UniProtKB/TrEMBL annotation:
It comes from Lophiotrema nucula. This is Carboxylic ester hydrolase. The keyword Acetylation does not apply. The keyword Cell membrane does not apply. GO terms for biological process: xylan catabolic process. Residues 1-18 form the signal peptide. GO terms for molecular function: carboxylic ester hydrolase activity. It is found in: Secreted.
């Protein structure tokens, strides 16, 4: 074929045309001052070249871990490549805090429109929806570690905005809450899995983050490794209790248990139509992103 005969210097462009799974667009840094961004979170966006207002694209918000950046998550996670395949836009927020963890501790970030990092990220989603005429039924959020904590916080604070969340090795929404109001404060008790509550207690914490809300909430998928020594495995159980409490499911009785799913040594528990937990035997911090599974859960595949 023609591709085989082009000069070596053109080979990568040529294979990009032949292979839809290559990032053809580039990561954009959005600095538009009309976006409400109370904590100065970096706003990076990946839109495949063929996305435009007529296609009503979906949006995936993909949130990095501590020490990470938007650029690192763009390079190191599969979402931009998957965006080429499925035609959605990826928003990569970048933490403004030293050490680049997310603020999942202050009252501001744990409140709907409270002026914290969660508010800043929701503002980016709003702007992207308007700019690309995105499909508001296809807005999703995911993240790893600190980004997984923020994923739980975003679905709790903006339940009307997101249709689903996928959490790779995080903690329950509100588990890092700082009674003294610390912004981006570390919470050792939560880290080691010793912040516990009943399902109803955890559900109240979620509801308090957006007290007026009574609509449908995002469906959730929670991944955690049994050998996680950064965010101890009991945080998996507490997160499952939290969303089981919200959805009124019995966290002690999964409706379905699938061993070696989606891969060897992972067990997938289905608690109801809106909650799955995937407990990964022998896996540490963080559980590797399961891109093709994510596409199924978000409904793109
Ligand atoms: C900023 O975003 C607004 C809203 O989408 C748009 O009208 C405006 O043109 C943008 N400004 C720049 C400088 O891109
Ligand atoms: C926008 O997308 C539609 C549908 O895929 C396509 O027909 C159209 O050519 C695109 N427009 C631009 C300006 O790329
Ligand atoms: C998003 O847009 C809606 C509708 O314009 C507005 O009511 C809401 O306050 C916005 N939220 C954020 C976080 O910007
Ligand atoms: C850690 O978070 C819990 C709430 O989950 C809170 O009760 C506790 O005081 C926090 N610890 C610190 C040191 O802020
Ligand atoms: C939900 O809240 C809205 C606005 O406050 C109200 O109109 C509606 O009746 C409530 N629905 C339920 C099921 O409580
Ligand atoms: C947490 O959940 C897993 C999976 O259901 C279970 O094997 C484990 O015993 C639970 N741990 C605790 C401390 O309840
Ligand atoms: C699954 O777990 C067993 C027992 O810990 C281990 O020996 C095996 O290597 C694991 N398999 C894979 C594919 O990770």
């Amino acid at each position: 074929m023609v591709c085989l005969r082009v000069l070596a210097v053109l080979a990568s462009a040529c294979s990009a045309l032949a292979n839809p799974l290559i990032k053809r667009a580039s990561l954009q840094h959005i600095t538009n001052s009309s976006i409400s961004n109370p904590t100065n979170v970096g706003f990076y966006l990946y839109a495949p070249d063929n996305v435009n207002v007529t296609t009503k694209p979906g949006i995936v918000v993909a949130i990095h871990y501590c020490t990470g950046t938007a650029q690192a998550y763009y390079s190191g996670s599969p979402y931009a490549t998957l965006a080429e395949q499925y035609g959605f836009i990826v928003i990569y927020p970048s933490s403004p805090h030293e050490g680049t963890c997310w603020d999942v501790s202050s009252k501001a970030t744990l409140s709907h429109n409270g002026g914290g990092d969660s508010n800043a990220i929701a503002g980016m989603v709003n702007w992207t929806v308007a700019k690309y005429n995105a499909d508001t039924e296809k807005i999703f959020v995911t993240g790893s570690s600190s980004g997984a904590m923020m994923t739980n916080v975003l679905v709790a604070t903006y339940p009307e905005m997101f249709k689903a969340g996928i959490v790779y090795s995080g903690v329950a929404a509100g588990c890092f809450a700082s009674p003294s109001g610390g912004v981006d404060a570390w919470n050792y008790t939560c880290q080691i899995g010793e912040v516990t509550a009943t399902p109803e207690g955890w559900a109240d914490i979620v509801r308090d983050m957006d007290p007026g809300y009574n609509g449908t909430r995002p469906k959730m998928q929670i991944y955690h490794g049994t050998a996680d020594t950064a965010l101890y495995p009991n945080n998996y159980n507490e997160t499952i209790k939290q969303w089981a409490g919200v959805f009124d499911y019995d966290y002690t009785k999964p409706l379905k248990t699938e061993v070696d799913t989606p891969q060897t040594n992972y067990t997938r528990y289905t608690f109801g139509p809106r909650l799955q937990g995937i407990y990964a035997e022998g896996v540490g911090h963080t559980v590797p992103i399961q891109g093709s599974e994510d596409m199924k859960f978000f409904g793109f595949a």
